[in-house]
Amino acid sequence: MSPRTSRPARAGQYLALLCYLVFLAFPFLWLISTAFKPAQELGSLHPTWIPEHPTLDNFRQAFDEQPLLRAAANSLIAALSAGVIAVVIATPMAYVMARHRSRLSTAATGWVVVSQAFPFVLLIIPLFLILKNLHLINTLWGLIMVYVVWALPFALWMLVGYVRAVPPELEEAAAVDGAGRLRILVSVTAPLLAPGIVATALFAFITAWNEFFFALVLLKTPEKQTLPVVLTHFLGAEGASDLGPLAAAAFLATLPSLVLFAVIQRRITGGMLAGAVKS
Q: What does the alpha-carbon distance between residue 66 and residue 60 come to, in Å, rounded to a whole number?
């Protein structure tokens, strides 16, 4: 490709990327704008991007109307627990499936992919009956078990790819030097898998943090409900909504995922570079 044709193509790529970023950022920016608008501007026939008279009344009203802090704590406990447990279970399974390939591991990988196509409606009834027999309905531990089961297939699929990306020659060289299997896994394989483990845990956390359907069905008492369920309480009869407090609460609900991703993204990049240097 000549320089004359590469420059317009590159400009077109940047333009397409900019349009895509604007498309993704528009709902979030509008949410922020709505959260800081007073009631008069929310009912205006000529809405503006930037609030003319920004206020924090929507945030104060949101905390006064609903127990957002308690719901956020429930969501945090469920999401963190699900992310950690899913990674702890999926990591050794992914290592075995990646290093010892067989028809069974191939079938298991195919089942992992197929399981992601199952809709929630097909799963909620058997899950509800199982949790009822275990006396885990209306408990965070029951919800955590559901989140782990739901995140585990994709977490396993992701980690298998990360394990296969680690050269087996590194493990063979450590074995020649006299290292045992456990020492190889801890000192050689685990540091190289750290970026993948963190990315997988982040996926499981965000999935559980934003999940609504299972939490709505399994949690009955207000004290146990998670943040996505509590957000629906701002919706009144016949679809009417308290738009200002709802936007403020939704904005606060998105912050943990954004902050966690921004912090962990640097660690993922640093871990990849460190692993490349060690190898």
A: 10
Please answer whether residues 82 and 144 qualify as being in contact, where contact means their C-beta atoms are separated by less than 8 angstroms. Answer: yes
Quick check: pTM over 0.70? yes
Are 90 and 153 in contact by the 8 Å Cβ rule? The answer is no
The count of other CB atoms within 10 Å of the CB of residue 248 is 27
Distance (Å, whole) CA 231 – CA 271: 36
pLDDT of 170 reads: 80
For 133, 259, 273, the CA distances from 266, given in Å and listed in that order, are: 43, 12, 11
Q: Under a CB-based contact definition with an 8 Å cutoff, are residues 69 and 63 in contact?
A: yes
Tokens 């627990």 -> residue: 81
Q: What is the DSSP letter of 241?
A: B
Alpha carbon distances (Å) from 202 to 92, 149, 267, 271: 18, 16, 12, 15
- pLDDT band at residue 26 using 50, 70 and 90 as cut-offs: confident
Beta-carbon contacts of 232 under 8 Å, excluding residues fewer than 6 positions away, are: 216
- Whether 147 contacts 208, CB under 8 Å: yes
